[in-house]
Amino acid sequence: MAKRKKSKTALKPSATKKKSSKSNQSFLKRIGRFIAKMLLAFFILSIGFVLLYRFVPVVFTPLMLIRVVEQVADGESVKLRREWVSIDEISPNMSNAVIASEDNLFMEHNGFDFDGIQKAIKHNQRKKRIRGGSTISQQTAKNVFLYPKRSYIRKGLEAYFTVLIELFWSKERIMEVYLNVIETGNGIYGVEKASQVYFDKPAAKLSKSQAAYIAVCLPNPRKFNPQYPSSYIKRRKAKIVNLMHAIGPVNLKE
Length: 254
What we know:
The chain is an all-alpha fold and about 250 residues long. About 60% of the residues lie in helices and about 5% in strands. It contains ten helices and three strands, in the order ααβαααααββααα. Strands 1-3-2 form a three-stranded mixed beta sheet, covered by helices on one side. A hairpin with a 2-residue loop joins strand 2 and strand 3. Helix 3 crosses helix 9 and helix 9 crosses helix 10. The longest helix is centred in the N-terminal third of the chain and has 40 residues.
């Protein structure tokens, strides 16, 4: 039987390797361009939404969506009670209370309290009960743009959005958004609706004590109820009121 001649057009091994290498480089370039476009789109959209929310009320947040999905999954009726009001329609006692309770350096820092973060890390290494080191600015960034589950990715994004809102919003606007979107009960969001539900009055008329009760319950608003405070909540409320007196009135317009 005659031997089959080798094709003159057959690629040499070295040529095959070069072609494969060029193909891989082309694929990596396409991936790189795609990632670059996605990052650019993310930066444009994120900055755009931050600028938009500087002027427009935030009427819905990722946490609200998560809670609604949880309610539907559990077969419960959907509870979503919120009412946006301007900062001028919220008692100064309320902003003073959350500053005393959550972030007494709110007017001084640029979004991050690094001493507070270090203290929280040391506390969490020794204690079982986790203490957060987030500022009001960080919490606002998380509540408006992100999700509550803890992860390094979320903390990184939280830091990014914190820088943006500190750059483009005033302290007064950060506080206004924070007080309107925070979870204040089961299906209740914002201090205006919380004030109506728990104290049968608008947020503009909250006393120091009532504002402190709402602020103290914020770390776990679905467990703690300002209307029926436990002895623990009463003790914490008294400490917050004392801190409010020590700090004095806070001028958010500075």
